[in-house]
Amino acid sequence: MRLPLFPLHVVLFPHLPLPLHIFEERYRALTRDVLADGSPFLGRFVVSMITEGPEVAPSGTDSAGVATLAQQIGTIAEVRTAEQFADGRWAVLAVGVSRAALGAVDRGGAYPLVDATPLPEVAGAGAKPLVPQVQAALDRYLSTVKRYVASTASLGHDERTANEVTTSLDAVLKPIQLPQDPLAASYAVGGVLQVELIRKQQLLELPDAASRLRMELDLLRRESRLLADGSMPPVPPADIRYHPN
Fold first, then answer.
1. Which of 65, 162, 173, 223 shows its CA 20 to 30 Å from the CA of 41?
2. Per-residue DSSP letters for 209-223?
3. Assigned domain for 74 exists
4. Are the CB atoms for 244 and 18 separated by under 8 Å?
């Protein structure tokens, strides 16, 4: 199928939400066409992680002439809600539907189009027993993140401030119960993990849930260990935000 291509500095996993603030003209046009009555795109477009080029065209340049290169494995996304503002900007909530292999890109129009072939959803051998192992590793990871952020934020502050930080973290970093389905669980963990985008892309490209869960188990254990040792900070909360185009 041929769908609009939306390259971003993000890796979107199936079943997970993607909020977008769309202000650039080429992506306003993309959104209008995706949402139009009788659209051949049926409310769908493709998200792929940028490998070269800007996410937003530099000020004063023609965005249609800006070629941004992206990964050849991406995710088909479907718009669930959309609101257009008076100035033409859009607030969109999309959800990942399916991983897809991306083919030739047509840059002849207002926005790029790409040939997208949905990839099969495969659990893989031994996937189901991995879910409780990953759940336990995820619980430890989130607890370690909470302790690390609380201790870092509390440095130089009194006990009352430290308690306020801990209370805030309890509200934000709530326990996450993974689905029992290995595929859904593997995508959920991929979205939660705060690691380099290239690692998230590697997770997306793995052929089955079992392979993905095994890699996530290793990553969760590695991140927990590094955070416990104080070797690296988690991604700042400000980096987990409403995503502009």
1. 65
2. HHHHHHHHHHHHHHH
3. yes
4. no
Tell me, yes or no, whether 111 and 15 share the same domain: yes
What's the length of the chain?
245
The per-residue pLDDT for 170 is 67
Residues facing residue 76 across a β-bridge: 46, 98
The DSSP secondary structure of 143-155, one letter per residue, reads: HHHHHHHHHHHHT
Q: What percent of the chain has pLDDT over 70?
A: 78
Residue 57, domain CATH: 2.30.130.40
CA distance 82 to 185: 27
- Tell me, what amino acid is at 135? Q
The three-state secondary structure class of 195 is coil
Which pLDDT tens digit goes with each residue over 101-135? 999 999 999 999 999 999 999 999 999 999 999 99
CATH number at residue 206: 1.20.58.1480
Among 52, 87, 119, identify where a domain stops: 119
Q: Establish if 244 belongs to a structural domain.
A: no
Residues 168 and 221 in one domain: yes
* C-alpha closest to that of 114 among 70, 53, 165: 70
